[in-house]
Design a protein that fits this description.
hydrolase, 15 helices, 14% strand, Glyco_hydro_1_AS, glycosidase, Glyco_hydro_1, polysaccharide degradation, alpha/beta, globular, binds 4-nitrophenyl beta-D-glucopyranoside, 3-stranded mixed beta sheet
Length: 462
């Protein structure tokens, strides 16, 4: 930092937004109540071996029944924003047709509860819980799903748009498309690169269509955007092979989403890489104009950075099929319980790079956080110095990026609560508040108290 002893975090401005994030399937439970129909995650959790320990979201954090108490937790931490997602199969069962009034009523109450406690709601429309009926009709690889998503977005907006100012269409389309359809680690568990790429395109198309619909429907100023999970892809050495491996990884993970949304074009090098695999992005005329509909805010989720090599352990840059070697190199760095390398410097690099390559789009960190092997004491208190350290270093990284010009306007910790961590089930805990899954008792961890105090200090409230 520039001034000896000064913490870069203290340079964050009074207008900076401070929040926490969650998502519907990870916390709500109540999967068969008030007319909700199954999502692809309800189905996937029943596939033997798909989710650690056979865990599922049937009860999760029981947030559906404990919502006012959870909102009180947020308010008591002094945070100004809560980012949550709406469960599509709750508010439009089956993914088509009229709104389910009973399902919408939950989000209606949630929004009122938040506003009553001076916490601003930030709605994510899609955090991975696709109605199973739409998957049965082809899922995201089917172009029609994009249009279904736009209808759904409009329906939620009609119910909450009078009180919710900020809207995120998609959370992490890379995860939905690649983990869900290409690699099979997430619902619906397909393993086909062509399906993954078609899903990516139709997710982006859905984002663009929904963005247009919401803009047309808005009666007062709204903020619209999408959230991408972005990471850094650095070459292990300066060799041409390593640099090409890093380029390809950055292309498939980052630029395939950033470029169409913020520049109106797919990156040609990624298009060429995909063609070499026999895969074509199913773009139709006019799609890129829709996808590039201007957004007001880019949500950035950051967890880790990676190092890439273009040669195998024997030093060969081609595999037996003659394809270029592309390999992630594990570094000797501290890791989280997810085995993700802790690299706060890469967070600064990422934000500065986004500012340089995609200028003019304000950013908010819509997720950042870490799972650690929490050890509660007899009272359920978790002294999570490791998580405090992670959050401190990553907030400093954000402050440094801002000092270098990146227009970052807020930071949301992932997550408010320990919750259903997808394929890892309840085994991995990301919360700043501990959840005892036997009693559903919530206990703020040391990190929650640290976050509360940090926000107060930066705002000059103490
Ligand atoms: C994000 N990866 O998921 C999601 O938005 C959250 O729902 C999730 O709980 C959180 O991060 C922690 O995992 C990711 O493999 C899942 O790179 C996987 C990856 C990144 C983000």
């Amino acid at each position: 930092s520039s001034v000896a002893g000064a913490d870069p975090i203290d340079t964050l401005p009074p207008s900076f937004r401070w929040g926490v994030a969650t998502s519907s399937y990870q916390i709500e439970g109540a999967v068969a109540e008030d007319g909700r129909t199954p999502s692809i995650w309800d189905t996937f959790c029943r596939v033997p071996g798909a989710v650690h320990n056979g865990d599922h979201g049937d009860v999760a954090c029981d947030h559906y029944h404990r919502m006012p108490q959870d909102v009180a937790l947020i308010a008591d931490l002094g945070l100004d924003t809560y980012r949550f997602s709406v469960a599509w199969p709750r508010v439009q069962p089956g993914g088509r047709g009229p709104a389910n009034v009973a399902g919408l009523a939950f989000y209606d109450r949630l929004v009122d509860e938040l506003l009553g406690r001076d916490v601003e709601p930030w709605v994510t429309l899609y955090h991975w819980d696709l109605p199973q009926e739409l998957e049965d009709a082809g899922g995201w690889p089917n172009r029609d799903t994009a249009y279904r998503f736009a209808d759904y977005a409009e329906l939620v907006f009609a119910a909450l748009g009078d009180r919710v100012r900020t809207w995120t269409t998609l959370n992490e389309p890379w995860c939905s498309a690649m983990l869900g359809y290409a690699y099979g680690d997430h619902a619906p568990g397909r393993r086909n690169l062509g399906d993954g790429i078609a899903a990516a395109h139709h997710l982006l198309l859905g984002h663009g269509l929904a963005t247009r619909r919401l803009r047309e429907a808005a009666r007062s100023p709204i903020e619209l955007g999408l959230t991408l999970n972005l990471s850094t892809a650095d070459p292990e050495t300066g060799s041409a092979a390593d640099r090409d491996a890093a380029r390809a990884a950055d292309g498939l993970a980052n630029r395939l989403y950033l470029d169409p949304v913020l520049r109106g074009e797919y990156p040609q090098d990624v298009v060429a890489d995909l063609a070499a695999e026999g895969v074509r992005i199913p773009v139709e005329e006019g799609d890129l104009d829709v996808i590039a509909t201007p957004i007001d805010v880019l949500g950035v989720n950051y967890y880790f950075g990676q190092l890439h090599s273009g040669v195998d352990e024997q030093g060969r840059d081609r595999d037996d099929d003659g394809k270029p070697v592309r390999r992630v190199v594990r570094r000797d760095l501290p890791r989280t319980a997810m085995d993700w390398e802790i690299v706060p410097e890469s967070f600064t690099d990422l934000l500065v790079r986004l500012h340089r390559d995609y200028p003019g789009t304000p950013m908010v960190i819509t997720e950042n956080g870490a799972a650690f092997d929490d050890k509660p004491d007899a009272d359920g208190f978790v002294n999570d110095d490791d998580r405090v350290g992670y959050l401190t270093e990553h907030l400093r990284a954000v402050a440094r990026a801002r000092a270098a010009g990146a227009d970052v306007r807020g930071y949301f910790a992932w997550s408010l609560l320990d919750n259903f961590e997808w394929a890892y089930g309840y085994d991995k805990r990301f919360g700043i508040v501990r959840v005892d899954y036997d009693t559903q008792r919530r206990t703020p961890k040391r990190s929650a108290l640290w976050y509360r105090d940090t926000v107060r200090r930066v705002r000059g409230q103490r």
